[in-house]
Amino acid sequence: MTYRVCFVCTGNTCRSPMAEHVFRRHVEEAGLGGLVVVESAGTGVWREGEDANPRTVSVLEENGYDSAHTARQFRASWFPAIDLVIALDEGHLRELHRLARTPEEAARVRLLRSYDPAAGEALDVPDPYSGGREEYEECLEMVEASSGGLLAAVRLELEDRTP
User: Which one of 3, 6, 15, 85 has the largest count of C-beta atoms within 10 Å of its C-beta?
Assistant: First the structure.
């Protein structure tokens, strides 16, 4: 059985596709590519069908990551099929909790930076959309810093599933 992780930001063109590609690389390098499905979505519908933001693509590619992406909106009906929903900021966390239809679904929603012990109280990944290159690079740094802890948590979940 596969373990599904979905990263969620606002429009699914900047932060969540960046997190998707970075975490997918971590999963593949850990030899878990056949066990973990990594995807992303946005809370809003207005960017659905668009590619990732060109600045996201540029930062990903310059750092050796894949960048192929088509934006889509997160649907409440997806909760039963997703094991872990990763929000990129508190606003997304609130929206995802609102969409959850049961306490069990809501319990599967977490903030990405909660997996970075160095994050402290600053658990939001700021939206780089209105910024320049520096904001996108900072976003990548935050995503990369959180991915190791997230991978460790997913590994534990997979071990718990193994009879």
Answer: 15
